[in-house]
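Can't attach files on this board, so I'm pasting raw text. These are the components:
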Amino acid sequence: MSITEGQTRPDLSTVAPTLVAIEDNVQQVIAGKPEVIRLAIIALLAEGHLLVEDVPGVGKTLLARALARSIDCTASRVQFTPDLLPSDVTGITVYSPDTGRFTFRPGPIFANIVLGDEINRAGPKTQSALLEAMEERTVTIDGVTHELARPFMVIATQNPIELEGTYPLPEAQRDRFLMRISIGYPHQDDELEILRTHGRGDPLGRLAPACDAETVITAIDRIREVHVSESLERYVIALCRATRVHPEVELGASPRASLSLLRASRAEAAISGRDYVIPDDVKRLAPHVLSHRLILSPDSELAGHTTGAVIADVLDGVPAPTD
Amino acid sequence: MSGYDALRAGLVALLLVSLVPAFDRVFVTGAWRLPALTAMVAALGIALLVRAAGGGAIASAVASLVGFVVLVPMLTGVTEGPTWPGPELWAALGERFTDGFRELQVTPAPTPLLSGIALILVTGFWVVTHLAHELLVRWRSTGGALIVVAVLWAAPLVVPMTTDGVRLHTVPFLAAAALTLLTTVELRPPRPRLAAAGAVMAAAAIVVAAVAPGVLPGYGSDGWYGLGRGVGVQPRGYQPIVDISQRLHNPDVRDVLRVESSRRTYLRLAGLDSFDGFTWRLGPPTDGSYRPDRESLYVATDLLPPEEPARTTEQVFVDIEVLDLANMFVPAPYQPVQVLGPHRDEMVWSTAGGFLATWDVDEGRLEADGPRVGVTQGVTYRVQSEYPAPTREQLLEVTVDEETLATWTQLPREYPELAAVAEDVYAAAGATSTIDQVLALQDWFTGGTFTYDLDVPALRGDDALERFVMEDRVGYCEYFAAAMAVMLRATDIPARVATGFLPGEVTRQADPEAGRELTEYTVTTADAHAWVEVLFPGYGWITFEPTPRTDGAQIQPRADDLTPLETERERQLRESDAPVPDPTDPTTPDEDILDPDDPAFQDPTTPDEVPDEEAVAPVEETGIPWTPVIVTLLVLIAALAAVLLHQRRRSYLDVPPAARRVLLAQDRLLRTAVYCGLDRRPGETMLEVARRWHMAGRVDSAAVRFARIAQAAAFGGIVDEGLADEAEELCGRAIADLRASVRPAERRAARVRVPWEEAKARSRELLRV
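---
Top answer:
Structure tokens for the assembled complex are below.
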């Protein structure tokens, strides 16, 4: 239920304006996609990772770089190819003849925001190296454990077409991503806008940071304290359980899914300037957080049903709490 | 308790109420409804209470059992007030149940609400209500609940019915069942597997159908038989006594026979040989349903052998036309010698019990399963009888051998008090011979000590006859005949009870000059009667009349030539010219002796007052001690209300006062919406609902603002008093807007429309599945 007297409340007074500033900043370069930007920021604040499934050229890389630029932190990009090795991602220990010692040369994963482009093109071994790092937030090479940067977010992209010669992410791996989104083609007016802004040079160059990494870390820590009432916890669990018994679903949402949904909902509440989560937060994020974790039964897949429809069905059917 | 639970509980109540027309056919009056439906409400209340308090199925069953033990004895008159279970209560309940099953076997439908039947009825309603609640509300098993209720529905099917009856019996139940199915069957995911569920339910239904008739009261070999007008309905037991009180209490007095007779005579149906402590019946006391020995049956085409040889007789001729009767026993004067008429081929004469009955006869041979209701409207026949008319002197010579005496003085137990009363009566009358003793007892019964009244409690309990003879002294023919026959047997005089009809009213006098030798009598249902027959070997069964009915309908034992006219003492008194002393009652204390001239002592049944509306009251309506029942129900209701109220508030108790105000306002708003027919879809949040209403133009943006505050209050935002004030104001506006946005007529219709549309949607889905 509600917070009783004397319970501490997270101080969100500085957090919400910061987030809004980041949002505005990124919007300067990515036109007409406020929802995508918001979801990306939520993933960042919930310390989750983003799987972007979309065709090339809609601005996936731009999103990652704009986000990195806006919070004044490092960004790197790995183009996944079939011959990419795990060490190409994590880094490698090399012998230096000058000093006669082995030194660690960090890979691209040692950045705040890592863009893994076309992650399904690399072999499973490389994919899992990345995914392990995502989960553990450390990399262990030659017995030495290296902490990754904070904040740390992987934005991986997958091309939903041209599946030949790819290694689609196994279900267990997909579960590691907080959300799966697609950016989609821009609206006609926005596309015109893109032509004009991008035609005059690199828009990223003109982008000034809205805050620093420290501020983001503070925000992440405070968001963990956003209040979730018991009825909402039950609601989240009920949603996930409903996906497991849905007749069109072969594999439903895992307990990790309910954790992720709650974490994302907290961030959503914070962005909205609330220190408590409401069912609307959960409902808004559920499609993004849950859809890539469900596996439809072969029959309904053949019938052309989508996980999105299943989740809409579940959201309609599970009673939302009012108190 | 959720609204869904409440809906399902309401459906349970509806299902049971839908059984009312079915059970109405079983009972004479609607008096059964009150105890049965009270039991239903109480059982449902207890089950709901336990569920609302979070109790499980076992707790519910235990609570229901406790409630049953406390309430049902009161409802059915077993106890006067709340009684804690103890040996006495168990014994009383057990005895009443035994009575009830016996009553079910011997009482024809429609029956008055006899207390044993009432107990079985109330128990049935209680158990079925509890089970239906558990199945429908607790386990959400609609089919299971319907099967349980269907068992109760099937119970009254033992009573044969007409086509109209079928409709009345069935349609309300089917309608209630359909409504239950439509409103409760879950079609949203997971979808029901219809085939599997159907197979399971069908299997369960077959098992119930196989088991229920063996378990339900009234089914089986000792079934009820309807007095019913249904032609072709076979009697399922042949106990003629059972319909006397039925006929007498029937408010609808009908002419049943038109008789042309050479003399005024009782029209006898059968002699009841044995007494089982409860009722007099045909055949040995152990047989529930008497089937006469084939050896004693004679097809009525020939001269009939006498049941008992009678040396001195008078001839009686009667022509009988059946006006409105459906019976297997053929009314005839005792004892018939010959039957004439087209229907005599279908009649048999039994020398056991001395009755004429209609039978399936094939070319003079008796069919195995022969008895049938052949005495129906339009049947005419002539009977020649030889009426035993011995003189007193002849009867004084009679001796009874040991075997005959043993056969005809059997009683289920000793009746020492009744025997003592009889001996006192004999002594007071100075009677030493059998005939004098019988006459003395007959005089004692008819001499003013007893009162004739139809509106009396049924003979019930082991000491019912003792109470009737020594305390109550009010009753009708059945009581007097039963009591006198038992007293005679208890003093070693062979006797039995006979049933049949009084001679009836003269509707046309004999007119020998016009060539009409016979007098026409019309016999009505109110002439149903029972009397006593005493065996004098060699002279037959002689009729005696103990019923003190003063309306002249019956043949008066002293005035008419029913029995030998004088006792020894009367003859001596007459010869000595002394006045005949008033019949004295040796067992009545002086202050209780009633003056026959006292108006208060006038027989309540005056000659023109055959059983009328008042006398129609059932034999024994169960007296419900209302005060304790109502108190118990009130306590139950209060407890239910307290639990519900507590549940409603409980969730808000841990909320700061300001937030609680907002949440209560939200409840008001959502309730208003339901009453306006604007339901909230299950998945919709408060904010979404408010936005939807706003978009539809039902409310202004204030409702959306209110929804935000309500969510803050519900999910952990800070709500201070000022915000709560604002919320309450916004909520008030939203409620007013919402109500205004729905036309009053629609609002009123919503209560019907919303469930109806849900039902429609469900049936559509059902069809699609």
